[in-house]
Amino acid sequence: ALYPVAGLASLAVWLIAVAITRYVSLGSILLCISFCLSSFITDGSYALKGVEIWSLRIMAVIVTIIVTYKHKGNIQRLIKGEERKFGKREDIKSK
Fold it and tell me: Phi/psi class of residue 22: alpha, beta or left (left: φ > 0; alpha: ψ in -120 to 50)?
């Protein structure tokens, strides 16, 4: 709600990333990165009035760092090619 244009653009990035790759984790990371970048690209004139724009941008950077860190395991699985794709059933192996 603070950055509606950036939010919608980031949602579009997420949808496109998931539609192409079928990796929700990759889409989530790209969503945060695109939101952070767009918060710096846009002038923020549509942000809440009276809120310091730089504090919102700093918060976007912090959230992006946290989300990326929390997806560390997903990133490692993506690199190894072991991340499960959206809509793909996990094979159940019998003992």
Answer: left
Above 80 in pLDDT, residue 88?
no
User: Where would I find the H helices in 42-87?
Assistant: 53-70, 72-80
Give the confidence band of 57 by pLDDT, cuts at 50, 70, 90. Answer: confident
Residue type at 10? Answer: S
Q: Show the domain range for 13.
A: 4-80
- Can you say how many angstroms the Cα of residue 6 is from the centroid of all Cα atoms in its chain? 12
Number of domains in the chain: 1
Residue 90 within a domain: no
